[in-house]
Amino acid sequence: MFKWIDHVIIAVNSLEQAIPTYEKLGLKLDRRAKMASQGVNQAFFNLGSGHYLELVEPLGAETPVGRFLSRRGEGLYLIALAVADVSEAMKTFEGQGIRTIPVEPEAGAPFVHPGSTHGVLIQLIERR
After folding, report:
1. Residue 87, SS3?
2. Side-by-side strand order, sheet with 2-11
3. What is the pTM of this model?
4. Residue 41 and residue 47: Cα distance in Å, rounded?
5. Alpha helices by DSSP H, the chain
6. How far apart are CA 68 and CA 28, in angstroms?
7. What single DSSP character describes residue 50?
8. Ramachandran region of residue 31, left (φ > 0), alpha (ψ -120 to 50) or beta?
């Protein structure tokens, strides 16, 4: 069902502090962005072939990433996995009793709830 890891998101308290760390690991910063709808500043490191490592910094304590950081601290926030058909994957998971988090199409891709995946939020990305 899964085709590949599309991207990985790491939650950090400060992009200014975290970016140099990842650059020391040999990664090159591709771009920065702000996604106000999700309440984050982002930094993207291109890993090649359309795959990214993304760092996210919350815009506030009450954003999803802000709440994550207050509960768990910095670290792995999300793994995005590519699937051929998101709707089919969601039906399959739900049929197996796996908890999902559907979203409106304009809001982005759906998720597999971390309560069903031993604490890891998984986003489903449709790639053909």
Report:
1. helix
2. 29-35, 40-48, 51-58, 2-11, 75-83, 121-126, 111-112, 100-101
3. 0.90
4. 19
5. 15-24, 64-72, 86-95
6. 26
7. T
8. beta
What six digits make up the tokens of 18?
């975290």
Q: Where are the alpha helices (DSSP H) in 4-85?
A: 15-24, 64-72
Model confidence pLDDT, tens digit, residues 41-62: 999 999 988 899 999 999 999 9
Max distance between CA atoms of the chain, in angstroms, equals 44
Output the six-digit token pair for 42.
């982002």
Does residue 65 have a pLDDT over 90? yes
Task: Report the C-alpha gap between 68 and 22 in whole angstroms.
Answer: 21
Tokens of 103: 């979203």
Q: Is residue 111 scored above 80 in pLDDT?
A: yes
Contact by Cβ (8 Å): 111, 67: no
Residue with tokens 């760390």: 21
Domains of the chain with CATH codes: 2-126 (3.10.180.10)
Amino acid at the residue 24? K
3-state secondary structure of 116: helix
Is the pLDDT at 103 greater than 90, yes or no? no
